[in-house]
Fold each of these.
Amino acid sequence: MIGAAAACIGAFVGMEGVSYAAHRWLMHGPGLVWHASHHAPAAGRVERNDLFPLCFSLLGFGMFALASAGVLPSWAWWAAVGITAYGVAYLVVHELVIHRRLPAPVPELRYLRWLRDAHRAHHVDGGEPFGMLLPLVPSGRRQPARSSVDDVLARASTRATRPRL
C-alpha cells in the first residue's frame, strides 16, 4: 500500500512539471493552433483549447487500461490515479477558480488569489508562468497583470460578454 500511495502522490506532484512543459513547449509551440483560442476573447462556452484536456485524459485512460491488462506494472495503475487527480485539480483551478467557466462559488483564499494573479500574468503576454498549481512568477509581474486584467474586465462588462482572463 505504501508503494501505491507513493506512485499516486509522486505522479500527482510530477504532473506539475509535465503541465509546465506541455503548456510552454506544446501549447505555446506547435499546439498554438488550438491554444490560441484560450488567449482570444471568448466566442462561446467551448473553445479549441478544450481539446487538450480531452487528449490528455485519453492518455490517462490508456495508462489505466494498460496497467489493468498487466502490460504495465501494477504501480502504474496508481500513478494513473495520481495523474487523474491532477487533471481534476487542474480542471477545478483553471476552469472554476481562474476563468469562472463553471457556475459554482469560489472561496476567497490567499492561495486561490495567488493562482488567479499568476495566470493573469501569463495572459498579459503569454510568458511565465506556465505551471498551474505552483505557478512561479516574479512578484513584480503580478501587479501589472492585475491592473491590465481589471481594464479588460471593465471593457468586457460594458459589452455584456464573458471576459477571458
Amino acid sequence: MAVSRASAGVGTLYAFVVDVNNLEICGRFWGQVLGAEVLYQDDTYMRLGQPGARPSLLLQKVLEGHTGKNRAHLDVDVTELQTAVHRVQELGGQKLREVRAYGMAWAVMTDPDGNEFCLVQHAEA
C-alpha cells in the first residue's frame, strides 16, 4: 500500500516543551510525576524521559511568568485518580478542578510554575 503525502507526515514528535521559571524545582517535580530521568541539562534546558524513548519532556527556562490558560497540555494516565492527585500535591502541584465525563475521571492540575496538565483515569472506577 502506498503512503500518501498527507499520511506520511512531516516528522515525528521528539519532545513536548514546557516553559518554566525554575528549572530545578520543575525538573524534580516532572521527573517524579513521570518516573523519568534527566537525559540532558544545561542552564536553559532539561530533557526528561527514558533513554532511547520518544517523545521526551523538555523544560525550557524562561524569564516571563505563566499568564493565562495553556493552549496545550499533557495528559498523564493514572490508575487511581485520588492517589495520583495527592502525590502530585505532595510534590508541589495544585489541583484546579475535577471532571467526570465520557466514562473517565480527570483532575486539572498545575506544576510548581502554574503550567496546567491533567491526571486522567480512563476507566472510571
Amino acid sequence: MITTERLILRPFDLSDAPAVQKLAGAREVAYNTLLIPHPYPDGAAEAWISKPRNENELSFAIVLRESGELAGGISMIVNRDHQRAEIGYYIGVAHWGHGYATEAGRALVRHGFEEMALNRVHAEHFTRNPASGRVLQKIGMRHEGTQRKHLVKWGEPIDVELYGIVRDEWDANSTNRTILRP
C-alpha cells in the first residue's frame, strides 16, 4: 500500500468490481486507454481483479483517503533485467481535473525509484489525450517521441506519445522526495 496526501494506492479487491466496471466502463475512459473495452462486459472487472499476477505486475486501486471512494487505477509493469518499468493509469470521469492521476503517478514513480531501485520509468499516451501528457510532464517525465499510427483502438490507427524519466532526473528534483504522508 502507498499513501499520499489525498490518496491510498492499494491492491484491488473483489468488492471493488462494481466501481471498476462503472469507472472504467465509461466510454470516455475506454476511448483513451488501449485495453479497456466498451461496453465493459459484466463479469470483466471480477475476472481482471482475480487474474493472477506475478511480482513484476503491480496494480493499485486509487482510493480517496477522505471518502474511501475508488477514483481509478494505476499499474506498473516492471522489467527487472533492465531496471525499468512502464506505468499506466485511468481515472473515472467524475474525478477528472482534481490532480489524482498526477498524485498517484508521482507516488508510483517514487516507489519505483526508491523502493524498487529502478533506473527508468516510462509511459505512453494516445496523442488525442493531451491531458495524460500533462500528467506525465507534471511527474517529471520528458517527451521522448511520437510513434505514428502505432496502435489500433476500435479499428482506428492512433499516434502514441512516449515519455520517460530516469533516476538521476528524479533525484535532482527535491519536490519528489516530499510527496508521501504517513
Amino acid sequence: MADLRGFEQLNPRITAAFLRERHGPASRQSHLESGRYENTYIARDAIPEIAPLCEAVVGAARTILRREELKLGFWFNAMGPGERTARHNHEEEDELLSCVYYLQTPPGCGDLLVYERGEVIRVQPREGRCVFFPPKLAHEVEQNRSGKQRLSVAFNFGPADA
C-alpha cells in the first residue's frame, strides 16, 4: 500500500473526467452483478486526466515487479449506496500485478477484502491510496453503507510483449 502524492488535486479532475465520459462513445461496461455493471472501461485517450495516475502506478509496478516493459489496463468501479463488488480474481490472461486506487471513499463505503492462504486481509479504502496485490488472489468489496458513491480505478499490469 502507498499513498499518491498530490492526490487532493488529481482525484477531483479524474472523478470529473469519469463522470463526463462514463456513458460516452469511448466507454463500455462489463460484469453485470446484482443489477449493476461493476466495471466501466474508458479509452485512455478520452480521459487524459488519468495520465499522471497511470504514470505513478506504472512506476510503482516496475519497482515491485523489477521489470521495465509493462502494459497497463484500467477500469473504473463506481459503487452506489447498498452496492458491493462480488468475489473474483484477475487471473484471466497474462496479468503480473493488480492494483486499486481510491478516488472517492466516503466513511462506511466498504472495505476491500483480499483472501490469501485461508486468511482475510482487510484494507480500508482511503482517497489517494494505492493497493497492489497478485492477480491470482481472490478479493471483493463489502457493501457500501454510506449514502454516497465510492469510486476507484483498478489496474492490471502484464508483459509489454504479450
